[in-house]
Amino acid sequence: MASREETESLTEEAICPICLDFFTDPVILECGHNFCRSCISQCWKKKMNCPQCRQKCAKKSIRVNRSLANLAEKARKIKLEPKEQDGQPQCEEHQRELKLFCETDKKLICNICRDLREHGGHRLQPIKAVIENYKDHLKASLDYLTQKKSQIVKTEQKQKRMISQIKEQASSLQTHITSEFTQMHQILTEKEQRLLRDLREEEERIVEPMEKNLQDIRLKLSSIEVKLSKLQKQMEEKDELIFLKEEACQKKSIKEEYLPLSVRNTPLSTGKFNGPLQYTVWREMMDIISPVPASLTLDPNTANPCLVLSQDRTRAQLGEKPTELPRKVTQFDQCTCVLGLEGFTSGRHYWEVEVGDKTEWGLGVARESVERKGGIDPRPETGYWVVWLIPGSGYLAGTCPSWSRLSTSVNPWKIGVFLDYEGGQVSFYNADTMSHLHTFTHTFTERLFPFFHLGSNDDRKNSAPLTICGIKGH
Q1: Is the entire prediction scored with pTM above 0.70?
Q2: Taking the chain, what is the end-to-end CA distance rounded to the nearest angstrom?
């Protein structure tokens, strides 16, 4: 085996003094010095001297040094290829088996390297132990990343499902909106065509006898013009006998023959076609469009004893003191609440309630089975889907686990409540502008009743009633 000194000497002999790398296509000059062909060619662009001894050279004196080329190839292999013994990498410096890993320098070393000053105080470990530690670390990283990948894949799938659901919901709502407006367009178009048809028929009914009368007038006018021409000729007749003969032939006077004609004038019924058309059509649409504001009434059997209901049961107000009537099991005994008389197990329904300047109220729907004794816990989980005005807190929706604040720029004077039983939706609107306030979603399985809460008296600041609004124009 070649010693370290021999290896280094062989390496030095194979190094070009110009590029300081192994010879490539080496050539020898007259002076005996060797260089890469490309290196000496670059040097001779200025002066044709030997870069080492400065002796002047002739370009034709350059000869290929094949022996040096072979030596350079061997030296290159020795330098670049690591020595192996029994298939194991060797220390390049000491030709010993690499058995340790210097964690400080992050380098593989042999036992001789371990005793050198350059590794003194460094943390050294057997290669196998380091490999095991690295494998454990890699395994932990793989396990962690595998777990994270699984979580992210689930999150990705969940997000994709939610996006798909939103897109399906948006598509369904788009279809619903188009259908609703198509129906209204159809109603309006049919009403427009019907009015235009009636107008044409009315026009024909009136104009036809007037056209006939005009024709009679024109015939009479033509007859008069003929008669005028004839009379004019008579006046111009110079033969007195002929004149008298023609005049005697007149059987009746001109006045008798041409009785006066009258103008027929039957006006159009403008009231039918130029009246409040939009209002008229709106009244007709009220019987077709669904839902229209429901004509609700309050159920006195559920009203808190402190409430006073109007005779038509469309208005509830806080009384001065509880009524002395016998209490009923269906009443709210502590909270100032009352239910609507009509319950719903299907369909789409809408009603409006005037809240006016009340400082506290609650509106929505409640299950038939809600607890009516003691205080109430108004959340969907307990059977209430309600929005509230609470003094000091503002407008809120009774959501769980915490209530949701409603965004409204103005204080509503009327609240609209929309229930879609099969669609599982309860929505609330500022009925003055029909701006959306909040929507609950739920799968309903029980009869639902309109719910009204009047709040506390608040030193008569909250004495205004809650009033169910009737349909405008009905």
Answers
A1: no
A2: 116
